[in-house]
Amino acid sequence: xxxxxxxxxxxxxxxxxxxxxxxxxxxxxxxxxxxxxxxxxxxxxxxxxxxxxxxxxxxxxxxxxxxxxxxxxxxxxxxxxxxxxxxxxxxxxxxxxxxxxxxxxxxxxxxxxxxxxxxxxxxxxxxxxxxxxxxxxxxxxxxxxxxxxxxxxxxxxxxxxxxxxxxxxxxxxxxxxxxxxxxxxxxxxxxxxxxxxxxxxxxxxxxxxxxxxxxxxxxxxxxxxxxxxxxxxxxxxxxxxxxxxxxxxxxxxxxxxxxxxxxxxxxxxxxxxxxxxxxxxxxxxxxxxxxxxxxxxxxxxxxxxxxxxxxxxxxxxxxxxxxxxxxxxxxxxxxxxxxxxxxxxxxxxxxxxxxxxxxxxxxxxxxxxxxxxxxxxxxxxxxxxxxxxxxxxxxxxxxxxxxxxxxxxxxxxxxxxxxxxxxxxxxxxxxx
Length: 432
Known about the structure:
alpha+beta, 2 domains, MetI-like fold, 5-stranded antiparallel β-sheet
């Protein structure tokens, strides 16, 4: 068994590496100029070029992939000539990059020909002081300086030749002078828990994606504890009552539930229970962080929608597996010996009948986490599925890539858990 688990684990790592490469190439290379989608059709070439440089998209594909995967802080400090540190902002709790310069943590900004330093204080605030003494001379006589700007980037300023930079703001795209000539967004990479900055929110992806994952995990967890025990029980009943009215009712009901799309089921539940009967909230919009604690009824309709979809599928899988096991020779032998039906089902048949459904259940855990896009969109539930949908519409490739890799991690992790569970259900795998 250790060899089997080790092989599965190595397969999981290889899968994740290949998926990360394919995902990166599809989203950042295969999708064309991402700045055109974000800035719109009427953005000028100068605006797109400026924004592309700010995002680091003017770097080579392989350098961007390695930066996204493993970070670039280890070589950016050599470019700057001094160490850099990632410090939490005391107000937001989000990580910010600072340069460790002259024994202090600093950022810089250019105003005309003058460079100012923002020095971080012990309480998290800053003080501003002149920093013209840091300019360096190039071979052509121009003065330049590599430093960390307020956008968590390593940038190169040239004195007296501030570039025109187009900055994306909530009010639109505006031009500003005194900008850097080169940009290198700093990040620790996916392996370091820092997949970059969200283009849609302007905040680190790590700080925005995990609250959404938590919401989806709560929804999926409630659906899981509702769906699978009930589905397995009904599947066992249908399988042991093969051909009888109970089996027919459960089979037809599960087929109808499986064939009905989630958005149809969700809208139907909203109309009946949310609008006509007004028993539970029709939508799951969160007005504050503690919305679920204050009103758990927000979860009722989304959980029922997921249950209706998944319940029928698992019932049919369990039913088919149970029928196959109940028709096997060793079960017929147990019946001929006069063993009680309850003992035959739960002691002899159930373990073998669970082999196929357990594999399906492990795969569907990933669906419950990442396949909630439709359900979350119907009910306005602020989960990971809605996060991916909004980010994809905006063109926020950093957020989409991080969310997709999170789903891949969950998928391969649940598959590994399924493999381990499979070894306990099937001893032939355990000792092969």
